[in-house]
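Long-time lurker, first post. I've been practising inverse folding by hand and with some scripts of my own, and I keep getting stuck on stretches where the structure tokens seem ambiguous. Below is the full token string for one chain I'm working on. Before anyone asks, I'm not after the true native sequence, just a reasonable design that respects the backbone. If someone could post their per-position residues I'd love to compare against what I wrote down in my notebook.
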């Protein structure tokens, strides 16, 4: 994803107190409950029921900001969820890549609406909603 694309989405999703920001949060919470708690646990502590089936260690994703000098690592988290962080050197991850799945969903939905070009933006918005939700789980 381009920097410009991400900046535009952040601007859209964070426009002060707007309906967009509220929707993005509730979408993030919904997506997290559906797709992430199985591994990460409801609070993000890494204690979901699927963990016993994974071979690697499960991170506590409430500590990402703390362990990054108090700054939430937005881009890294976005890329982890999207899956783009694993292109190349990180190819062995057990964390599923959601970007591709969301892009396929969006393309299918949009093909009925006659606007297929927007699939990328929709998929990114869905990942961004998750990034915001993960940010809200951070412990100080
Ligand atoms: C099948 C289990 C599984 C599911 C489902 C899963 N994850 Fe993960 N996740 C992992 C594992 C394992 C890691 C550790 C790093 C790795 O293997 O990539 C991880 C790492 C992460 C990280 C840490 C990234 C960093 O920078 O350290 C974040 C954030 C994250 N996942 C978010 C999510 C979100 C959001 C969802 C739901 C859309 C999700 N995960 C679904 C297994 C999972």
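-- Answer (accepted) --
I ran through it position by position. Result:
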């Amino acid at each position: 994803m381009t920097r410009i694309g991400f900046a535009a989405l952040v601007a859209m999703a964070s426009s002060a107190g707007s309906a967009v920001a509220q929707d993005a949060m509730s979408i993030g919470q919904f997506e997290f409950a559906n797709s992430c708690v199985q591994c990460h646990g409801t609070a993000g502590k890494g204690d979901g029921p699927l963990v016993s089936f994974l071979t690697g260690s499960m991170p506590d994703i409430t500590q990402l900001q703390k362990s990054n000098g108090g700054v939430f690592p937005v881009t890294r988290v976005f890329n982890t969820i999207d899956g783009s962080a694993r292109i190349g050197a990180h190819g062995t991850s057990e964390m599923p890549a959601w970007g591709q799945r969301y892009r396929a969903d969006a393309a299918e939905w949009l093909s009925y609406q006659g606007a297929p070009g927007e699939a990328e933006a929709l998929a990114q918005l869905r990942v961004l909603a998750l990034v915001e939700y993960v940010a809200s789980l951070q412990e100080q």
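A couple of notes from the structure itself: The CA atoms of residues 5 and 121 lie 8 Å apart. The pocket of heme C is lined by residues 31-32, 35-36, 38-40, 50, 54, 56, 58-59, 61, 64, 73, 76-77, 80-81, 93-96, 98, 130, 134 (CB under 6 Å). Happy to go over any region you disagree with.
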